[in-house]
Design a protein that fits this description.
single chain; mainly beta; Lipocalin; OB fold (Dihydrolipoamide Acetyltransferase, E2P); eight-stranded antiparallel β-barrel; four-stranded antiparallel β-sheet; 17 strands
Length: 169
């Protein structure tokens, strides 16, 4: 299931499946069905409800899940969000990629099971920094950026609250 934001205003819910050049599924609780032909890597021809659409992919950013499409000469800015993006948004962590990160806070209350780094360690984006147990699940908190650990504000076995400082870069 995706949330599709069109031109920063229209939000749509979509669950579409692709089978070769055909698609079908649900868009805003309505059944949709159609097909497409790839003309070149940036151009498609789409058929939906007996209507023909020329689709040009003008910009594509896979990391940010955004694109600019020109459909029958009209430009649309599209942003896709999946269930994981929605979860990050609900935890207040949806803008971590756009901001300079210099600290990690607890995303939820829990207990620190293990700390895998020490002050002064150099870490790379994606390195596991610590393990937090919450709701009987182990959550590995990873580094959102490259950096050097300046301060570890908790110890193994500490109970932590949501938004409590854990590590500073």
């Amino acid at each position: 299931m995706y949330t599709i934001n069109v031109n920063d205003s229209n939000k749509h819910k979509s669950d579409l499946k692709l089978k070769g050049n055909d698609f079908e599924g649900v868009l805003n609780e309505a059944l949709v069905k159609g097909s497409f032909i790839k003309i070149n890597p940036h151009q498609y021809h789409l058929l939906h409800n007996d209507q023909s659409y020329n689709v040009d992919v003008m910009k594509l950013n896979a990391v940010e899940k955004t694109m600019v499409l020109k459909i029958n000469s009209v430009k649309y800015t599209i942003e896709l969000k999946d269930k994981y993006d929605e979860l990050l948004h609900s935890l207040g962590m949806d803008n971590v990629a756009s901001a300079k990160i210099n600290q990690i806070k607890a995303p939820m209350p829990g207990m620190v099971l293990n700390i895998l780094v020490h002050e002064g360690n150099e870490v790379k984006k994606g390195d596991v920094l610590l393990v937090l147990e919450a709701m009987k699940m182990e959550n590995m908190l990873k580094s959102p950026t490259d950096g050097i650990i300046k301060k570890i504000a908790v110890q193994k076995g500490n109970a932590v609250e949501k938004n409590q400082l854990l590590i500073q870069f």
